[in-house]
Design brief:
Blueprint: H1 2-23, H2 27-37, H3 41-52, H4 59-62, H5 64-90, H6 95-109, E1 114-120, H7 136-139, E2 142-148, E3 151-154, E4 166-171, H8 173-183, E5 184-187, E6 198-204, H9 215-218, H10 220-224, E7 227-233, E8 236-239, E9 251-257, H11 258-268, H12 272-276, H13 280-294, H14 310-325, E10 327-328, E11 331-332, H15 337-367, H16 370-396, H17 402-412, H18 416-426, H19 431-457
Antiparallel strand pairs: 1-4, 1-5, 2-3, 2-4, 6-9, 7-8, 7-9, 10-11
Helix pairs in contact: 1-2, 1-16, 1-17, 1-19, 2-3, 2-5, 2-16, 2-19, 3-14, 3-19, 5-15, 5-16, 5-18, 13-14, 14-19, 17-18, 17-19
């Protein structure tokens, strides 16, 4: 999908100067047409900044990118949505069927967890501790409770098994089937509903001392006599096998007696206040690192000066890396979703205000002129043609699911309105996956491409 998105970007980057040459556009206007046609605001900033570094660029020419961007942006949104509708009609897409196939594929990739009660019938397990039972790590299952006769206890590593014991086991269906063959058999009993004094609690990991450590290293079973059965991270649920390393915000499901659960929760942090708190120090450190990376020159042969990732691409790249790392020392790279959305909305509002102030004086005179109409039509071509060509290739040749294709189209144009349209048409958030997959590379490529256009066309 990233290769397809890159093809859309490069196709548009080649088409914009070609149309500019055919129509006699100023190179500064070509930069704005390219940025506006892709609805990519960071590329406008990068292109204008690069143009400003070139010698002999008059102030009125320096204002052209913002004006051309403002003229082409609205039609680009319509062009993206129109391309999605046209691709859907040309290829006779059954949205409901595509959504079902996408859901089935996603389900097969991430098999849901199930719970099962197994009966120890294998005589070789008699007298073994739970951590000595073969197959637990290989099958990816966890054991939450063990019932000895009439007594149910949390499944800690030191628990000794006997033939006839009942085990409450969590895992995927395939893993449970494999582990059942090791243990011996299955029971219809549900140990969770039987009176035992054992409860379950979901605890959020917020204590910095446990971050980066594995579930096994925490040794919660020996320390607090509780069993860790499941882990949820970014809406993905998995079994809490001993080798899983914990990140800030992970949700653990633990099993044990109430007093033990309290102690284990305190050790893990379990602070909703901490989870929802905005950590400004790592936030601004990340921005600072992003600015440093964004101002580092990248040399391409044949260009008169280096290009840069800029104040959009640099922080984006650094944020991706820091989000993957999770933490450095006691600094946690985590931002609550509410704060994230607030900063996003503020940033885009300030940017559009700046674009409006830069283009406002000449916008209305330009948009209703012949030149403005030419920019608008050229931007529409730069938007629609790459999407239709690459979209048809992806659909016809690569047989890409339309949920992926619609997210790819929106992501290659970094256009949230198109993503919202695709999600509404699909009746689900399925296109979000492809959108998020291609967005970072697309943004960086557009920032670099517009600077190459500025450097290669300036002065002509």
């Amino acid at each position: 999908m990233n290769l397809l998105a890159a093809a859309i970007v490069l196709f548009g980057a080649a088409l914009a100067p070609l149309l500019g040459w055919l129509c006699g556009f100023d190179c500064a206007a070509v930069i704005g047409v390219f940025a506006g046609a892709s609805t990519n605001t960071p590329s406008l900033g990068a292109g204008t900044q690069t143009l400003g570094t070139m010698p002999g660029i008059a102030a009125e020419r320096l204002a052209l990118p913002a004006i051309a961007y403002a003229v082409t942006y609205p039609t680009a949104i319509l062009g993206i949505i129109g391309s999605l509708l046209l691709l859907r009609r040309l290829h006779r897409v059954d949205i409901a069927g595509e959504a079902e196939r996408f859901a089935a594929r996603s389900h097969s990739r991430g098999e849901p967890l199930a719970r099962r009660t197994l009966v120890v019938g294998n005589s070789r397990l008699e007298g073994l501790r739970l951590d000595e039972v073969p197959g637990r790590l290989e099958t990816g299952v966890t054991i939450s409770r063990v019932r000895h006769g009439d007594r149910t206890v949390p499944a800690v590593d030191a628990t000794v098994l006997h033939v006839g014991d009942r085990l409450a086991v969590v895992g995927t269906a395939h893993g449970l089937d494999q582990f059942e063959r090791v243990v011996g058999g299955r029971s219809d009993e549900d140990l969770l509903v039987m009176a035992s004094g054992i409860g379950t609690r979901r605890v959020v990991v917020t204590d910095r001392t446990v971050l980066g450590r594995t579930v096994g290293e925490l040794n919660l079973d020996d320390r607090f006599a509780v069993a860790v059965t499941r882990l949820s991270r970014a809406d993905v649920e998995m079994t809490a096998v001993p080798g899983v390393r914990l990140q800030f915000g992970d949700m653990l499901q633990i099993v044990g007696h109430e007093a033990d659960l309290e102690k284990a929760a305190a050790a893990l942090g379990n602070s909703l206040k901490e989870l929802n708190e905005t950590h400004f120090v790592p936030f601004f450190v990340g921005i600072l690192l992003g600015v440093v990376v964004g101002t580092m020159p990248i040399v391409f042969p044949g260009l008169p000066q280096p290009v840069k990732l800029g104040l959009a691409g640099g922080p984006l790249l650094v944020a991706l890396l820091l989000g993957r790392v999770g933490r450095i020392g006691k600094q946690v790279w985590h931002m609550p979703i509410g704060t994230n959305l607030a900063f996003r909305e503020l940033g885009i509002a300030v940017f559009f205000a700046a674009v409006g102030l830069a283009a406002g004086q000449q916008f209305f005179a330009t948009v209703f002129s012949v030149t403005g109409l030419q920019w608008m039509l050229a931007g529409l071509v730069v938007t629609v043609v790459p999407l239709l060509v690459v979209g048809t290739l992806a659909r016809r040749v690569l047989k890409l699911n339309f949920m992926d294709l619609s997210g790819l189209v929106a992501g290659s144009m970094t256009d949230p309105p198109a993503l919202a349209f695709a999600s509404n048409a699909a009746g689900s958030d399925a296109p979000n996956v492809a959108y998020a997959t291609v967005y970072p590379l697309t943004t960086i490529l557009r920032i670099l491409a517009v600077q190459m256009l500025a450097l290669s066309l300036a002065g002509r």
